[in-house]
Amino acid sequence: MTSLRPQGLSPHLFVRDAEAAIDFYQRGLGAVEVFRNTLPNGVILFVELQLGAGRLLMSEETAELGAPAPPTLGGSPVLILLEVDDPDGVARQALDAGAEVEMPVQETFWGERYGVLRDPFGHRWAVTTAREQLTPDDIMGQTPRDVA
Amino acid sequence: MSIVLTAAGFHVLLALASGPGHGYAVMRFVEEISEGAVRLGPGTLYRTISRLVADGLVEESEGGDPAAPHDARRRYYRLTPQGEQAARAEAALMARMVGAAREAGLIT
Lengths: 148, 108
Fold this sequence. Notes:
Chain A has 148 residues and is an alpha/beta fold. Chain A has helices at 18-29, 70-73, 87-96, 136-142, and strands at 2-3, 12-15, 32-38, 44-51, 54-60, 79-83, 100-107, 113-118, 124-129.
């Protein structure tokens, strides 16, 4: 049986102020809300957004569930990679909606036009375009000795 | 961001290409056309149609009851002109691939 439900890998983000975050991901990254599950007290249990061909799940920070948001942790150890046609345009849109630049969008040795943003909720995003112009050997040959 | 048509999205557009229909008809169409190999459950149907509506490819058909439950199976949908265009473009691409498959002897 073939399922049409996407079976790929999907991030589930926890944020402080889910309502504001939904607004940001829609305006800043072009997400589309497709499903929302709200508790009787109004707390958003989870929201499912679609971003390009991917799914993005999101919930309010919930200490009882062991699900803290980045400000509680003092940062995020995850970088979410978003492949788009126009990383410069998406980065501009995200900045207008309140994101901050960690690394400006630029040409990289691995052949992508790539930049890193931090959204207002502390999650980190790489916006990039996979141009597939370089072979793995090209990339290995251009890899720096150090990241410093 | 440009509109991305998923496999499920294309199936829904295809089901509505011959005229408006409700979600049940879309689910039945997909199952029949694939001879049971592909099944579109109510959850995927709802999410897929929500996305197509947000992208402007599908709209709820007039005459539907706006107070009806949030059950995509019972609501009526139709293609927008953009939806028809997206379905045509995807079908043309698939036709070219099927042509190549035939030339390669994969389809007799």
